[in-house]
Amino acid sequence: MKQPKTPGDVHRDAVGRYLAEATHGSGVRAVALAGEEGSLLGGARCADVAGNDDDLALLAALGAGCADKIAGYAELDELVDSVSGGDDFYATRLTVCERTVYLASIGARVPQQKKVAAELGKILAPMLSA
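Above: the chain's sequence. Below: its structure in token form.
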């Protein structure tokens, strides 16, 4: 029997769908949005990129750490290379609904980040304001 989706699952799906749409054709191979603690709020990957939600959760956590400049440790650099497959890795801090979130991507930088933040705010407002 299939478990009913929780409100968090619904938001995670909506964030994933939006990020897939926003990064389509940009060269982004995978993208993940993390909350303030580094937990996955949603993510997406190109159809030709193998992986699962655990991979997106790791990408989200790395994005949160790297956007806050925790980089510079050889072990962290090795982990980023492992997760990104040696491809370019980008991490950015955004403000959504007056909260800090982290956007991480592999392959290319997420385009139009101000617009992305505004759209994510519409999706996440019910969850982040609760």
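The longest helix spans residues 7-23.
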